[in-house]
Design brief:
Blueprint (H helix, E strand, L loop, with lengths): L1 H32 L3 H26 L4 H19 L4 H15 L7 E4 L6 E8 L3 E5 L5 E5 H4 L4 E3 L8 H9 L1
Helix pairs in contact: 1-2, 2-4
Length: about 180
């Protein structure tokens, strides 16, 4: 019993440390890649949820909760989530894509890009990158929302011959 309390305290400290360290490194990566605070927040929250779920399962192991009990609870939760999201499977896909875009995508807010999608190609300035979509501003001033999961599946052309606009100009145009 005393060992369980000791290991639980160590796990809680380790979890809190992991949450803070992950937030620190995500903020550091975000500042290097010059991404918005809101985007860093979304990615940080997603990773924090994963850390908390893993910690919960480790806590169950520490307290010798039977594996079958943990699996029954987990499968029940995942079944409810699965049924709730069945029609909206793209929500998880968009969140995952947002995390991939955060770490790997070479363009940032203010860059002019062309999403090559056959006859449905889209050209515009990146105004915002959210958890679910990329928002572009086209030459006519229209805002185009493009889902993240489709965004990472399509070829993207960064247009360098058009002058990229600054973050401040994007905010001004977005507010109009």
């Amino acid at each position: 019993m005393d060992n369980n309390i000791f290991f639980s305290i160590i796990l809680i400290i380790g979890t809190l440390l992991s949450l803070n360290v992950s937030k620190y490194f995500l903020t550091k990566i975000g500042s290097i890649k010059k991404v918005t605070e809101r985007r860093i927040y979304y990615v940080a929250r997603s990773i924090q949820v994963i850390i908390l779920i893993v910690s919960f399962f480790i806590l169950a192991i520490i307290w010798s909760v039977s594996l079958s009990t943990v699996l029954v609870v987990a499968s029940s939760i995942f079944t409810i989530i699965g049924v709730a999201l069945f029609a909206q499977w793209s929500i998880l896909s968009n969140i995952t894509s947002s995390i991939i875009i955060f770490f790997t995508f070479p363009t940032r807010i203010g860059d002019t890009i062309k999403i090559i999608d056959g006859d449905n190609s889209v050209t515009g300035v990146i105004v915002e990158i959210t958890l679910f979509q990329i928002e572009l501003l086209d030459t006519e001033g229209n805002t185009i929302s493009y889902p993240n999961n489709l965004f990472i599946q399509r070829p993207i052309k960064k247009i360098n011959n058009i002058q990229n606009i600054s973050q401040e100009e994007v905010e001004i145009k977005k507010d109009d």
